[in-house]
Amino acid sequence: MKIKKFMAPSMPLALDQVRENLGQDAVILSSRRVTENLPEGQNTVNVEVTAGIEISSASAEWNLRTVPTSSDKEQKNADAAARINQLSERISKSELARRHFSSATELIESTPETSHSSNKSLGEDFLLSGMSSCLPDTASSKTFPDRTRYADNIILAKLQELKTAINRMEEQSIVDLPFSVELQRMGDRLRDAGFPERLVRNCMQKLFRNLENEALNDTEIVDGAAVEIISEWLPECRDIRISSKKRKIVALVGAVGSGKTTAVAKIAAGFVNKLRRRRPNAVVKGQPTESRIVIISVDNQRVGAKDQLQAFAQLIGIKVEIAFDEEEFRSIVDRHHDAELILIDTPGWGPIDSAGLSELKNLFERVEVDEVHVVVDALSSAKNMKNVVEASGELGFDRRLFFSKLDCSDRVGTLLGLAVHSEIPLSYLSDSPSPPGGIKPGNLTELVARIVSGQNKTNRKTQLEYSSNKFLENFENNEVSTTSA
Q1: Residue 226: CA atoms inside 13 Å, Cβ hemisphere, count?
Q2: Model's pTM, two decimal places?
Q3: Is 483 domain-assigned?
Q4: Which of 61, 109, 291, 307 has a CA-to-CA distance to 300 between 20 and 30 Å?
Q5: Considering Cα of 65, then 67, then 69, then 70, what sign does the dihedral take?
Q6: Is residue 64, in this structure, part of any structural domain at all?
Q7: How far is the C-alpha of 271 from the C-alpha of 50, rounded, in Å?
Q8: Contact indicator for 180, 225 with CB cutoff of 8 Å
Q9: What's the pLDDT tens digit per position in 390-405?
Q10: Which of 313, 303, 198 is nearest to 266 (CA)?
């Protein structure tokens, strides 16, 4: 192993020297801060890094200063992706060959098993070519169909191992980097809030590379840069926009107990208040302002769902329609052709409830729903959130995310991870249990800043009381944050 020491004013500069002299494959053996006495009597703190690289006997005369470029990592990833594609193509060829040689398979199955080892068919040779190293000796005693299925299982297992290895390499690529205390504290706050580990590592890596040594020890600079990085990963905010010229139909879907009914009421309250402010005592197309917003419930499963919605509607001052079947639902929608916004409250479903999703899709297609807002509550696990959102893709409509119950959890980082993973636009955030108020457009930057600075966990009760009072104040002042155009 070739070992060298490098001295630089900061860790990033020292690492640059390591890469320049030893290349991308160099291993950091140790690092420490060194104080040197200058002639003028002043002191300066440098970073000393000890690094090494293995040199095989075949390349002992290799010039260490001729190092790979910064694109080596990308090339390795590209090579790994190419290997995955080759293995995938081999699986497809195996399936094609199995169909092509189906008659040969029947012939092999009808012959004694002892003849297989000495008299293989052309199809078998084609399928198993290049795979002998993957198959144990016990496979030679299997019939042809069993061997091909066994080979396919081996390939799929190897593919999964390769993907897992690549993900592990990415996650561990910065484990040994000497992060500053402030950077580590910022990462801990993200983890405590439920932010996915992989995104935490990516954020810390970007901060380590982009900030200078002094900046990495400044809490304000680290937190501000972290907010900027995470905000770049988040999807856009796309709340509901309505017009008096065209009716808009919006359906809210989600798991049981996610807060769909409350979300419907909050959105309706915001728009009713907005229209009343813009058109006081106005009658549009022969109808009062509040009749321009309609709620239709098709939830025939949850006990008390209709009573809850009726109570919310009475509080808001609008009418609620109840549909018990598809024909009645379509009739109600047609009857409100002059409405500006129709909100549909739906029954809860689970990620594996394909029948329920199919019924909702058929229902939405009959009335040409414009938008589907998937309600996800902050109390759900990260896995369940992901499964619900992925399952909602079967509906096939323009989807938005609606995050609810932010006032019930201090681990809202799971919601941020879901937003980054899904890349689906966000419509609204809800952080109070009942309407009116407690809703605002889905701009997550403020939430990110709260998590990064640690305010999401500090003095939680005071924050919730302030948030609730603020939203109620906005509602009374006609400033509910729902938008119309």
Answers
A1: 35
A2: 0.60
A3: no
A4: 291
A5: negative
A6: no
A7: 64
A8: no
A9: 999 999 889 999 999 9
A10: 313
